[in-house]
Hints:
Elements: H1 2-6, H2 10-17, H3 21-28, H4 35-47, E1 50-53, E2 61-64
Antiparallel strand pairs: 1-2
Amino acid sequence: MARAALGWGVRDLAEKAGVTANTVTRIENGSDAKQSTVAALRTALEAAGVEFIPENGGGAGVRLRKA
């Protein structure tokens, strides 16, 4: 969802996070990942304007930061 909201492809996110496109695809398909990899992905997404929303009864989510 976050990647799509930015209009990024798998390779875009992988490049910005410093991981391989295969890693992004595996994680998006539900595979386990190292905490450091998840942190790198989150950092890249947050730097691009994604805000992670904690669970509030309806589940966790993301949104783009307002300009």
